[in-house]
User: Fold this.
Amino acid sequence: MGRFAPILPELMLSLGGTILMMVAAFTGRRGSTITNWLAVALLLGAAAALVGAPSHAGAVFDGLIAADLFASFGKAIIFPAAAVAIIAAHGWFEREREHGAEYAVLIVFSAVGMSVMVSATSLISLYVGLELQSLAAYVLASYRRTDERSAEAGLKYFVLGALASGILLYGISLLYGFTGTMNFTGLAAAFGRGAPSLGLLFGLVFVLAGLAFKASVVPFHMWTPDVYEGAPTPVTAFFASAPKVAAVLLATRLCIEGLGPATDAWRQIVIFAALASIFLGAVGAFGQTNIKRLLAYSSINNVGFALIGLAAAGPQGASSVLFYMAVYIVMTLGAFLCVLWMRNEQGEPVESIASLSGLAQTRPAFAAAIAVFMFSLAGIPPLFGFWPKLLVFNAAVNAGYIALAVAGILGTVVGAYYYLKIVKVMYMDEPVEPYARLREPVQGLLILLAATAVSPLGYLFAGPLAAMSDKAAGSLF
Amino acid sequence: MTGLPLLSILIAIPLVAGVLCLFVRAEAARWIALLATLIDFALSVYLWTLFDPGGPQWQFVERFPLGGGINWALGIDGIALVLIVLTTFLMPICIGASWRAIGTRVSEYMAYFLLMQALIIGSFAAQDLFLFYVFFEGGLIPMYFIIGIWGGAERIKASYKFFLYTLFGSVLMLIAMIYMAATAQTTSIPDLMAHDFAKGAQTFLFLAFLASFAVKLPMWPVHTWLPDAHVQAPTAGSVILAGVLLKLGGYGFIRFSLPMFPDGAAQFVPLMFVLSGIAAIYTSLVALVQTDMKKLIAYSSVAHMGFVTFGLFAMNRQGIEGAMMVMLGHGLVSGALFLCVGVVYDRLHTREIAAYGGLSDNMPGYALLFMVFTMASIGLPGTSNFVGEFLSVVGTYRASTWAAVAATFSTILAAAYMLWLYWRICFGRARTPEAAVMRDLSAREWWLLAPIAAGVFWMGIYPETFMKPFRADVGRVLERMERVAPAGDSHLRAGQPKPAVIVGEEHPPEGGH
Assistant:
């Protein structure tokens, strides 16, 4: 058993997920509520199980995965985010009597995949984790199979995702072919032997391209707005949070541990991707009228900022990426929970930004929560969303990339425009038909918690969070 | 000093009151806001009495590191002190000015105002670089709401312009701050003020900070957001914008640009003089042709801020003290002028100058106070602005004659546009029948304007009260600047009087004819 202690969370989730699937199959629709809550408990239990061996065992299974603090930091934000995605679905699917319990089970399996992603220290475990996560995600995107938009989103996601997987695999095969190893340490050693060969460079580019697709980084972002818009909102909330964190963390570990000696080779790619994401994410959001599409661009924009931290490399850069993603996930989940609450009087979901008009007068607290998330996503002080942005720019400046920091920060000004637009619609326009009031105390509590965390009160927790992300980033070096 | 964290309390009172406002009805919110701002004012006056001008540079220092590079570090010197008192003095007046003028969403409105007060005081009191930035930028959010929700017809455009313009200016400063923190290995403002940055870096740091403060102050040519914001903002919003928010720009120059990057600043003195000169003359001319009262006063603000930058970049004692006094005086006078516009706007709902006239007949009290503030704005001796403008021009003259000429010329233009404005509004005959029947100032309006008038005279007749707290601190800034201060082109020396000649004994000097 001691051999398996470092992967206790993954074991819990895999076995628990399988059992839950059985529970779901035999209880049918009646059991969906209990399955959901069991899944939430399972995810939180897995998060609790991170203490101890899963955080300190180091390389296990012949270097296939690493049970270190970096992985644990990722899992500690991924598991709760997945749990929130399950809670977010409560009351969403029942309306159309299509809510089987598979939703929660799929999220649990996806969480296993993400868990493997953030611990992967070998190209093969990287690929397995990524695919496990993605397969669950394809199904989730088309979860409302009777809805054309949802089916379209699933198909689009699947086809483009398969293409990206192909690119990634091709890159992996090149790397393996030219180095003879799948292991990150082996890769680092191979890249360390002088200037990388053309084959290695190609492999590196293809692998990064594949990962960029998963993290929806420009220029591989095209699927994001469509899938985010089409997928059921709880699923979108999930896509925008946990898998994104997993993909960014995976890229961080690969770049720093596996491709560390080739930093100059991948840094230019990351810098381009970061700036392109920031500006395209900001400009693309301008004309949007659908809030989910807008948040899709916002997520592209935000991942761009995290990549600035990665471009800085070094412990400080890695730490800023972790910090950024931890705050990002709270803001995003909070924003999407608010989108979930946008229902008209008949209880049908509304997604147009225009429907938010005058919300500050009809539902002041709700509007205030959205405003907090928007200002925070825009990175306007005194909201806490400002601090992670400051940290990534700090890392970039300390690494000597002042021009990159300047370009990135000008991107925040461009991006601020559309976040302001939402606030303007809510606060400065005349009220329209008010939303229905939902009875979802748990979701309400989560929104409140998230809004508090990204409000200026968040600075109180910045110290411990920074200490943790520093430690976690330290385990990569 | 007392053991109480007075500065934190000063920030906390409006914050708590602001949150409280959100949960009560309109009338209660008004009273809570008034009470909170009055308590804050009383507290800041108490702070002033405790402040020891001859004592250490930084007083009432508080420092609580929160970890992760975040420090709750507060402390003030005399410069910050007088600006804080200006803020707390104007705030109750703003609340009073909004008492009836704001009829919708009053609780929210009061909450934003109180939040803004907390953030402004925070910016003046912050001793940590990033804490300053958080407060400085945070002020955008409540102002955005105030302009956008309660503003005039073009409010949305004005609020966007205000927000994005100032944000754009500030983000470059943030990068500069990150660089400073990395090079100097500290984020403490007092430490940074003593740190000597490399000369090459100072150029860029100065430019980055200039981007922010020039927009905030505002300096020509990045002033264009100001007239829009002013015209659209509700009266109290304009008062706080002109009275206090603009002063953040000047404060930034004194606190950061001059003492931290003296070499950088010295390089740009000619540029700053040119920009200030254009601001002083060009915007005065623009003010002259305005038909909208608020716009006229907004442009006059830009022109007056020219005096601030003239004085600051003269880099001598008179200049910097003059700049401080212009900021204080302008805070009072422009605030009062916007209130004066608000008074007639509340009655007639137009800001067009052409709609008024002859108000001295039916509104003698109003005409009297308006006259006081008009004269103060021109810089009549005995009023607040005279002291500041005079010192600022004296300081400028020591640095550059031509700059002083431009500054003086602007005073003449100020007299032109202000007197003409006053003439068109108060003298002659009413141009519209509605204007002829407007009632004179109500008791509430007297309460708003009279204290400012008292302040204007106090500052004009006995400025020492206000200059004493920051005299030593200006000296400390000057110590940092001494090396680089411009030499000046006016080589003053005592005249050589001709030897006295007794009448009748004059001879042509050359003999031999």
